[in-house]
Design a protein that fits this description.
By secondary structure, the chain is an alpha+beta fold. Helix content is 29%, strand content 26%. Strands 1, 3, 4, 5, 6, 8 and 9 form a 7-stranded antiparallel sheet that branches.
């Protein structure tokens, strides 16, 4: 997602209920070395992710300590997975998805690590050099960079998928955690002002209702948003993104 700003709660905009982030995704139709079209395998360290399939057809390949799985994706499918799930989106026929992410603000703050080969996971600088997509280059060059990092992530992903025993995946988990450790204090602030604050607000409302206090209902508002960016290069495809996501 991307990677795919302060979270909307932190910036003063309350965002979706429960500090959930939303984006619209058109999965890459670029073929890889194995002949499969799709995006870059990666995992999230603190965020669950959900797919609401709105068009086309495809699948999500997942890898956890329980093994390798393939979940078909067709219109109407809702599929989700928890942190630590290595996932690769596969496009079979114009796959389009609405993506819901837990902890609005954290995914775009780096809560995603691509499955690059181990030599690219040694430190944040080496990883960034292999994954960064400059904003000040032509779109054709950005596409080339995104495809190159996708193919590099697939190289590491295939090694993890084909390895025997749990240790290679566990080693990737450790490397991913080490890469993001310098960001954790910043992530905690986003969470405190976002998902944690949203949950605390519900607790406060329950307390009010128990006391017979309905004053918060007078603060009701209605909001709507349109994407602020269309066709942004993400890990898995082109994204239409909303403010703060």
């Amino acid at each position: 997602m991307s990677a795919e700003g302060a979270g909307r709660v932190a910036s003063g905009f309350p965002g979706l209920p429960g500090a959930v982030a939303v984006s619209h995704l058109s999965v890459y139709d670029w073929p890889a070395a194995d002949g499969v079209c799709g995006g870059s395998p990666h995992l999230h360290l603190t965020c669950s992710e959900a797919y609401v399939v709105t068009g086309g057809r495809g699948a999500v390949q997942t890898l956890t300590v329980s093994g390798y799985e393939v979940t078909p994706l067709v219109p109407g499918t809702v599929a989700w997975f928890t942190p630590g799930t290595v996932h690769r989106l596969v496009d079979e026929d114009d796959l389009r998805i609405t993506v819901l992410m837990q902890n609005d603000g954290l995914p775009e703050a780096g809560d995603a690590v691509l499955t690059l080969p181990p030599e690219y996971l040694t430190d944040p600088e080496t990883y960034a050099a292999a994954t960064a997509v400059p904003a000040d280059v032509p779109e054709e060059e950005r596409e080339r960079i995104v495809r190159t990092r996708r193919d590099l992530a697939l190289e590491g992903y295939r090694a993890l998928r084909d390895a025997g025993g749990p240790e290679p995946l566990a080693a990737f988990h450790r490397a991913a955690a080490a890469l993001v450790r310098p960001r954790l204090a910043h992530w905690r602030k986003r969470w405190e002002h976002g998902a944690r604050a949203a949950a605390a607000a519900t607790g406060d409302q329950l307390d009010r209702l128990e006391r017979g206090d309905v004053s918060h209902l007078a603060d009701a508002v209605v909001r709507s948003e349109q994407p602020v960016e269309y066709g942004k290069f993400g890990m898995c495809g082109r994204l239409d993104v909303y403010r703060g996501t």
